[in-house]
Write a structure and sequence with these properties.
The chain is mainly alpha-helical. The protein is built from 20 helices and no strands. It is globular.
């Protein structure tokens, strides 16, 4: 009896099942890809809006200030007080700079942190509160908060594809990298930042996600703003052999000052003297108003020099317009610490570069035979590397932000020296220590207080 060549019902069912499963997996794969593309483009758009909003509010503040400097005594304290009130009592999860929160959210047991800090509500609120701080004249930047915002956008829009912790971690890293790349127009810096500062190790599985996110967010920002250098183009060069004295000098000075700054910031975060800690805990809003009054007083006394993010003053120093800016570094450092002490929402990533430019100018003035702009760039990277202990991110971001590729080797050397000096002052890097303390606080909290 001849056997029929027609497949049995069971075989046909298996084939149909495989085809349907393949179709389902293909649809899921493309859904995940579209989510990644859309989120990266959205991060680029947010970075553009955030950056332009920051500059507009900065100009608005100075328009009012130019009309009468005494307005600062009202705007700065009230702005910081309102920011603290909203972040503590209304918009929960928006306090802080943003980078430590993202680093802490990378931990496997940080599910509570991810649900608290990486939401779209927090992302939108963080934009508003950061712009409020910048518009108040405080020393804040948007580049730190945009990291948390980008991570939240990436994590939430890609959450449907999260089947394991590693994928979620990759989304956070990709969102952070895309944010830095779009905010600074520095794609390499975004990738390096995700590896060195955020992940601490190279995550091969997340590499393609990070790279694609950086490309799409960067192209989106480029479509609106064009190809630009964040701090302009620095016409600077320095031969490594003839410039070893300023390289060592800026490395040592930047490492010491950056390390001390990191120690002070950590002290403000977790180890305040009892009297100050009690005053801030008793009335955080009034404490922020007091900090705002001091910031406004310093700003008025310095003829407006210390107000704002520091972007324009740093650019002036890089371009050689340094008259009257000799004390900028120390005064900007003081207002940056006071802004952070106030508890208002805002970042210190970009202000740290401005402080470094000020200290670089001081070193350059002690070495008139050396090219001033080159020494200023060395001061920027050294102070940043000393404060964050992220030397690779430091020299890459300064090189890209100033279009100074000819300074690569000197920048690398100064950053490495500064990071080494900073290690003698602090056991852990700034953002890593903040993330550790944040995790420790959350883990120690009773279950009732977490909800």
């Amino acid at each position: 009896m001849a056997h029929s060549s027609t497949p049995s019902f069971a075989v046909r069912s298996q084939r149909m099942s495989r085809r349907m499963r393949f179709l389902f997996l293909t649809i899921r794969l493309w859904q995940r890809r579209v989510e990644l593309w859309v989120s990266a483009i959205l991060i680029g758009l947010v970075a553009v809006v955030f950056g332009q909003g920051s500059h507009l509010l900065h100009e608005l503040f100075f328009t009012i200030y130019d009309n009468s400097p005494w307005w600062a005594l009202l705007i700065t304290p009230l702005g910081l007080g309102l920011s603290v009130y909203l972040s503590r009592y209304v918009l929960i999860g928006t306090a802080g700079g943003g980078i430590p929160q993202c680093i802490a959210a990378l931990e496997p047991d940080a599910g509570l942190l991810r649900e608290r800090f990486l939401t779209l509500k927090v992302a939108v609120s963080k934009i508003f509160l950061t712009l409020l701080g910048i518009g108040s004249g405080a020393t804040f930047g948007y580049e730190g908060p945009i990291v948390q915002i980008g991570a939240a956008i990436k994590y939430r829009l890609g959450k449907s594809g999260i089947g394991h912790f590693g994928y979620g971690r990759g989304l956070i890293l990709a969102g952070s990298a895309a944010s830095v790349a779009a905010a600074f127009n520095a794609p390499l810096a975004g990738i390096v930042f995700a590896i060195e500062e955020m992940g601490r190790t190279f995550d091969q599985k997340a590499s393609s996600t990070i790279l694609l996110s950086v490309i799409l967010s960067g192209l989106t920002a480029y479509a609106f703003l064009g190809n630009y250098s964040y701090f302009g183009t620095a016409s600077a060069s320095m031969h490594f052999l003839s410039g070893w004295i300023p390289i060592i000098a800026t490395g040592v000075v930047g490492g010491l000052l950056g390390g001390i700054t990191a120690k002070l910031i950590l002290g403000i975060s977790f180890f305040l003297p009892n009297s100050i800690a009690k005053a801030r805990a008793f009335s955080p809003v009034l404490f922020a108003i007091l900090c705002g009054l001091i910031i406004a007083g310093i700003g008025i006394a310095s003829d407006g020099m210390t107000f704002g993010t520091g972007y324009f003053r740093a650019r002036d120093i890089i371009e050689g317009h340094t008259e009257g800016l000799e004390g900028y570094g120390i005064l900007k450092l003081i207002t940056m610490l006071l802004s952070y002490l106030s508890g208002a929402t805002g970042g210190i990533f970009a202000p740290a570069l401005a402080v470094g430019a000020g200290f670089g100018l001081n070193v350059a003035q002690l070495m008139p035979a050396q090219p001033e702009t080159a020494v200023v760039l060395l001061g920027m990277v050294a102070y940043f590397a000393g404060m964050t202990r992220a030397p690779v991110t430091g020299f890459v971001i300064v090189m890209e932000m100033t279009d100074s590729s000819t300074m690569l080797i000197p920048l690398m050397a100064s950053a490495l020296i500064a990071a080494g000096i900073s290690r003698l002052i602090n056991r852990h890097s700034l953002y890593d220590a903040q993330a550790r303390m944040l995790l420790k606080t959350i883990r120690a909290a009773p279950a009732t207080s977490r909800n």
